[in-house]
Amino acid sequence: MEWFNKLGVGVQAAIISAAVSIFLYILGLLFNWLREKYMLSYKLKKEYTFNQKMHIKESLAKSKTPLIKAAEDLNFRLWNFSDNIDKK
Predict the structure, then answer these.
(1) Residue 73 and residue 78: Cα distance in Å, rounded?
(2) Rounded to whole angstroms, how far apart are CA atoms 57 and 18?
(3) Quick check: 75 and 82 in contact, CB under 8 A?
């Protein structure tokens, strides 16, 4: 460290500034890499759950329509039955 103390104040400031800049650059690269890694896994998980929910909704929509039509038919038959129960 003696060689560092022998340097001028301006050179010391420049060396410290360069070291801090290099350190922060490497720290930024590490942070970006970790963030991208997390974001990729988060994005894949969200896309998977979205696709699963969409598939479930499509399946329910396909089976819901015939069920509603059958319930309507039953409802009309019951109305007709209740209207004509005393006619015989």
Answers:
(1) 9
(2) 57
(3) no
Look at the block and give the residue holding tokens 């490497």: 26
- Residue for token pair 């129960």: 85
CB 15 within 8 Å of CB 4: yes
Rounded CA gap, 38 and 46, in Å?
Answer: 12
Burial pattern 55-70, b for ≥16 Cβ within 10 A else e, equals eeeeeeeeeeeeeeee
pTM of the model: 0.49
Report which secondary-structure segment, H or E, holds 44: helix 9-83
Give the pLDDT of the chain (88 residues) as one tens digit per residue.
Answer: 788 888 889 999 999 999 999 999 999 999 999 999 999 999 999 999 999 999 999 988 888 888 899 999 999 999 999 888 887 6
